[in-house]
Inverse folding.
């Protein structure tokens, strides 16, 4: 027969929804925390590139969309070509004769 203290502890666990103290890590500290997945998903905006490219395909009068990354790459390539440091033309690389 369970002692009175054990019965009280069992009733307290049932009422308050806690786990018994056994000196074992259970991970309840992390399970009690609120979930943050939806909040983190809202933090990062959904990219508009796929929708912009689709709009370009179906509407020819739609302005051409270039992302910031594409613009940065094209500007860098233009500057490198002006200095003569751009990529070689096809077939005229370092190892060609």
């Amino acid at each position: 027969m369970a002692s009175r203290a054990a019965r009280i502890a069992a009733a307290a666990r049932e009422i308050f929804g806690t786990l018994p103290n056994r000196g074992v890590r259970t991970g309840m500290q992390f399970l009690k925390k609120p979930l943050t997945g939806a909040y983190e998903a809202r933090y990062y905006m959904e990219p508009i590139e796929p929708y912009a490219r689709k709009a370009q395909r179906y509407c020819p009068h739609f302005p051409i969309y270039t992302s910031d990354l594409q613009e940065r790459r094209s500007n860098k390539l233009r500057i490198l070509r002006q200095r003569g440091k751009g990529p070689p033309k096809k077939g005229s690389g370092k190892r060609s004769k």
Observations:
- The chain has five helices and no strands.
- The first helix runs from residue 4 to 16.
- The mean pLDDT is 85.
- The radius of gyration is 32 Å.
